Give the backbone structure.
Amino acid sequence: MTSLREEFFQHQTQTTPHSLAIEVVRAEGSYVYGADGTVYLDFIAGVSANSLGHNHPRVSKAIKDQVDAYTHVMVYGEFIQQPQTALCKLLSDLLPENLNTVYLVNSGTEATEGALKLAKRVTGRAEVIAAKNAYHGNTQGAMSVCGTEVQNRAFRPLIPGTKLITFNNEEELEKITNETAAVILETIQGGAGFIVSENGYLEKVRKRCDAVGALLILDEIQSGVGRTGRFYGFEHYNCIPDILITGKGLGGGMPIGAFISSFEYMQKLQDHPKLGHITTFGGHPVIAAAALATVKEITETNLMAEALRKEQLFRTYLQHDAIKEIRGKGLMLALMLEDESMATEVVLTCMDQGLLLFFLLFEKRAVRISPPLTISDEEIKLGCDKIIKVINQIIAKKASH
């Protein structure tokens, strides 16, 4: 009889040559429990997806209550379902006036696809400007606006018409012209190393888009839903997008995405052609119920303000000569280490010692820290002490050789 581990490697497609392969039996709060008895403090939160940690009682109750009422009944946008409508209304209430109509989908990459289609439909243009080292998802359209050839080359040809600019480089904004349908940017670049806007960069992009009639799409899949200390990251800047993309943390651990724009723009998906965008399971009532509970918990408590305070705890505790920089905002942080090999060793050694950290897609010197917003001060101190201890162990081992 084969073990679960053997079946995992034989029958479930792997996405890297070296899966972390922790066999999970339970997760609660800030902890993941392994089948071998190991208890892991979770500084990943499902790659920013488990906003409220694992098995949060408010989210779990919402899921169970909705399962008892009904699950999937009809493709998106045809039947009136309370969880969907309540979620869309709440998101609209939390956003600027022009972001008042929500299209719920199943994932962040689907939200990217919908946003790109909407921008082309609204402007009648085809060109899209994206950033180098951007990441907006892994479907063909999303990959077309991901600015890294390492990821893209094996899957070309992708959708044509994308031009790349460098995030925070104002001189390249001239590439945005009256041929441009949309500029798509992560409010905080994720895979590139948690890079934040500098010197009013996002505001200058907004001004350039207005000047040439291009739409601005901001991707808040990672940075949204309270992670940076505001409900959406763009609230730190004087820059309101025409289309907002969200996902990950919105579902409280359940799969969801959404693109959000004005009622005027979103109406263009209704006709000419009809079914301009469609999804079977987007806005699934169980998922919508989980997301609604998640958003209410984050906005009705002090978790967003606490994210900024907790950021300072991480910056205080994680001081070491080997840590060259801590990038990011709120509880979206990246430790920049000397090189890729040290970053890899820190992640793997910490895992062996009961702390879950992870990598970033394109910045190989980085170690991701994106814990649940609910993480306690004591858990932060515990995890940071472990990171410092592991770094010292690695340095001592190198010195002894």
In short: Residues 57-300 form a domain with the Aspartate Aminotransferase; domain 2 fold (CATH 3.40.640.10). The first strand starts at residue 24 and ends at 28. The chain has a mean pLDDT of 96.
